[in-house]
Amino acid sequence: MKRGGKIIKDDITFALRRYFAKKENVPFAYLFGSYAREKQKESSDIDIAVYLSGTPQDEFFKCKLEFKTELEEIFKKPVDVVIMNSAPPLLNHEIFKDGVLIKNADPSLLSDFRRKNFYFYLDQMYIINTYLKSTKEKIREKLR
């Protein structure tokens, strides 16, 4: 798994594809973060995002812990697992933008989820930008 003492992106994606191929409740999954961007450090954790299908929401945390524990055993380093179904739209947007698609067993579901998330993302960005604009105006007024 390591080359020259360093885990590389290709090794991670290969291992993740093998791991998630067996997970029928995960129709799609991504590697994201520093390993996806190939900007990792020795201390970096491995960031994984999964979409759960056919899993009740009250079992999301259990699945997250299962994936985290099993993947940390495989990689021998910390793994952070994000459940995309319940993640904020801004985080999902970053995952879609910079992530590496590991599994896509249901392209239609992935496409639909990406589209819906994009609309939620735009809504949130409008709110954030409106807030920032208002805050900047208040600061300018106080500086006058």
TrEMBL record:
SUPFAM superfamilies tied to this protein: Nucleotidyltransferase
Annotated InterPro entries: NT_sf (IPR043519), Polbeta (IPR041633), TA_antitoxin_MntA (IPR052930)
CDD domains per record: NT_KNTase_like
Highest taxon of source: Bacteria
Transmembrane segments: none
Domain Polymerase beta nucleotidyltransferase: 16-107
Protein name per its UniProtKB record: Polymerase beta nucleotidyltransferase domain-containing protein
Lineage: Bacteria, Bacillati, Bacillota, Clostridia, Thermosediminibacterales
